[in-house]
Amino acid sequence: MGWKTVMKQQKLVEKMTIEEKAAILSGKTVWQTREIDRLSIPSIFLSDGPHGIRKQAGAGDHLGLNASLNATCFPTAATIANSWNQDLGEEIGQALGEEAASMDVNILLGPGLNIKRSPLCGRNFEYFSEDPYLSGKMAASYIRGIQSKGVYACPKHLAVNSQELRRMAMDAVVDERTLREIYLTGFEIAVKEGHAKAIMSSYNQINGIYANEDKHLLTDILRNLQNFRMRLSG
Predict the structure, then answer these.
(1) What is the 3-state secondary structure (H, E, C) of 122-173?
(2) pLDDT confidence band for 174 (50 / 70 / 90)
(3) Of 65, 184, 185, 208, which sees the most CB atoms within 10 A?
């Protein structure tokens, strides 16, 4: 992200009221952000996911109770990672980006590149590998493909979301070296080489602090280019 873009965004944030900032964070619906007309900030539509667009007909809900619009069902990330074929990943990403654009989806919530640490994780099929290098390389290829169609990719979940059981309450206790070498390396590659325009934080705690409130993770590491050597692309 260029410094001119950063400064422009900072000035826009400074113009927002506390109420408007809270509104942006709270969301308009399950899948939409709120618009702020006076600052020409549009509502953004987000949708799952990396194996096929899950945009629901009518009102959206986080449980997926309402029927989804017809969309292509692509092979799982676990399957594609077995090919070690980045070109194939990018081709799938392009197809995902085209479908997302046709459904007026602005941000596609994926790919998922959590590390496979337990065979009991209910979403292992969504993740590429137990290897952070392979995960990062494949995720970067998906991201390049998705974003080539004007849709933002949102790699997830940063970080240490290695199980579905109580994922909104569990605490992942991990030392700094393990965090950086195993759990963050894939995200670094995905952002540096894929130029991801968004990232989704995980729901769990990391060493006693929820990921979406973790200054060390989100600021010291993610936003500090010298520490993490990665950047969000503008």
Answers:
(1) CCHHHECCCCHHHHHHHHHHHHHHHHCCCCEECCECECCCCCCCCCCCCEEC
(2) very high
(3) 184
Distance CA 201, CA 213 (A): 9
The single-letter DSSP state of residue 37 is: G
Beta strands 152-153; 46-47: pairing state: unpaired
Q: In this structure, how many other beta carbons lie within 10 angstroms of the beta carbon of residue 216?
A: 15
Predicted local distance difference test score (pLDDT) of residue 37: 93
CA distance 124 to 108: 19
Q: What is the pTM (predicted TM-score) of this model? A: 0.89
For residues 128 and 138, the answer to whether their CB atoms sit within 8 Å is yes
Q: Cα(102)–Cα(99) distance, rounded to whole angstroms? A: 5
Q: Which pLDDT does position 162 carry in this prediction?
A: 84
